[in-house]
Amino acid sequence: MGKGLFLLLTVFSFLGLYSCDSDRVFDEYKPVSSWNKDSVVAFRVDELDSLETYDLFLNIRNNSEYKYSNLFVITEIEFPYGKVITDTLEYAMAAPDGTWLGTGFGDVKESKLWYRENVRFPEPGEYEVRIKQAMRKNGEVEGIENLEGITHVGFRIEHSAQQ
């Protein structure tokens, strides 16, 4: 295959992949290793169009070291003028038979989890999204000190499908 044909195929492949993700506004991952209960994964989001609505997602990558079928997290969105919205969320990570619900090949699975839909960002300025794990073993008050098996925590914003 000639260099010109290879370059042309590469460009079309890139454009094809990019166009499949045209709803993406923000998409970032942070690696975690033994996610400590006090460790906060934070994402800073620049000013967004205040007239548009957006859908928000948490993206979680886990491997076979993750020992649980669900995941509890505490999220916060801090607005530019200081208002904070806090949520405690639970997500299913595995089916009752133990099969991971995420996608991917091999040991690592990725789960795209709904966080909020039809959200507006009305204040001009930078927003911060913070995520903490809030896992505990059944019947125990204290949280799991270090959560193993989560490899990356991501935050994603898409243009709302409702527009």
Please describe the biggest sheet, giving its number of strands, its sense, and whether it closes into a barrel.
Answer: 4 strands, antiparallel
What top-tier CATH class fits best?
Mainly Beta
| N-to-C span | 44 Å
- Poorly predicted sequence stretches spanning 5 or more consecutive residues: 5-19
Helix run count: 1
The name of the CATH architecture is: Sandwich
**What is the tally of beta strands?**
10
Main structural class: mainly beta
Question: What's the rounded overall pLDDT mean?
Answer: 88
Give the SSE string. Answer: HEEEEEEEEEE
Helix content estimate: 10-25%
Q: Indicate the proportion of strand residues.
A: 35-45%
CATH topology category name: Jelly Rolls
Pfam families: GldH_lipo
Keywords: Lipoprotein
Protein name: Gliding motility lipoprotein GldH
Question: How would you sum up this structure, described in words?
Answer:
This protein is mostly beta strands. The chain has one domain: Jelly Rolls. The protein has one helix at residues 3-19, and strands at 24-31, 35-36, 41-45, 54-62, 70-78, 84-92, 109-119, 127-133, 146-147, 150-159. β5 (70-78) and β6 (84-92) form a beta hairpin. The longest helix has 17 residues, at 3-19. It starts with a helix and ends with a strand. InterPro entries: Motility-assoc_lipoprot_GldH (IPR020018). This is Gliding motility lipoprotein GldH. Pfam families: GldH_lipo. Keywords: Lipoprotein.
